[in-house]
Amino acid sequence: xRKLLSCLFVALCGFTGIAGASSGGGGGGCTxxxxxxxxxxxxxxxxxxxxQRGARNYVNYCLGCHSLQYMRYSxxxxxxxxxxxxxxxxxxxxxxxxxxxxxxxMPAKDAEEWxxxxxxxxxxxxxxxxxxxxxxxxxxxYVDEGRPTGANNLVLKDTAMPYVLxxxxxxxxxxxxxxxxxxxxxxxxxxHFDGLETVVPGELSEEEYDGFVRDIVNFLQYVGEPVQAKxxxxxxxxxxxxxxxxxxxxxxxxxxxxxxx
Length: 261
Prior knowledge:
The chain is α+β, with helices and mostly antiparallel strands. Helix content is 47%, strand content 16%.
């Protein structure tokens, strides 16, 4: 037994050493830091008011370029308890019917000419990339005069998307510093992200803008799976039923087998 434990300990030490070496252990690493990966959306589709605000924000700032081709206006109105008349007044600006799919009015050819590529449909972006990715992307824009749009993004470098939320969120400058690191015995200089500095304040405070972005993320999370809130509520009742059923099944088993030795 002692020999077996010794072998396991040696194997564990060897694995740890390999993991450390692969991550640049001992000699340092030159992987650029990415603190924005710790920004979390904390998305929740259970807040009806947040989803309503997110729908409003989306059609005003995102729908001009990005369609939701698998979602109908009527479904949004029903699920978000908006009402068809209110949806027509506040969500539909293209002359579309309440029963039409939510599509952008921007022609794909014009979009390719203006941005270099057609903006993607965002119906399933939350399921494909996750809510945190959307949140980090929308919060990661910074001023970059070298880009055609005048902006760049921490999460998606050299993105073709302009910073459409600049008026509400403000414009920011990304602060980078060059730091020396050692990788495979060679010294290198890498850019280290230190933070974002406000250049032009937006209409909203930092806290208000954070909520503004979270509402959009929540809405896209809902669009990716409109039934998830109902599914989660139903799941609670299913678990409760199984617990009660298990209790009764156990009591029935005890009653049937009580006279069996």
